[in-house]
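As a warm-up, study this chain.
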Amino acid sequence: MKEKIYEKGTLGWFREQQKKKLDKKNKVIERWKRCGIANIFRNKGFNDEDRDDWSQFWSKVDIKDNINECWHWTAYIEESNGNGYVKGIDRISAHHLSYILTKGSIPDKLQVQHFCNNRLCCNPNHLELGSQSKNVQYTIKCNRQAKGENNGGTILTEDQVREIHKLHKE
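Now compare it with the structure written out below.
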């Protein structure tokens, strides 16, 4: 059967637009159900009135059907540290908000850490709480710590350091 095309601005056109929006929203909700986010929200006490708030956040996350894959933040990324941030919320990183929405509050002196080593990942299954020292140890273990010229506080190049050592030995 041929699809009826309505003129823009008519009641039929408006109904078609509303139907398209609803279909798109239902597809997103089905995806959330497949990956478990819908159940997490229901268990946390979120209801349909909250759906628009959390759907705004999750619409900026590339959610995969496979819960073992990283879910990348697709919106604002801070150049200085490579983390994703939620605009409009005072300096909260995307992975922090993902943790809060799915697992609860973050106690003082603890940090949300990625055990997938992907700063843009918002998959709650890849996030855990830990102390600053635990995070630093994990960073060193995974060889993600900035060393030498890659350290932001570096003043001298590695060649300059070698030259200083050479001069000092003489």
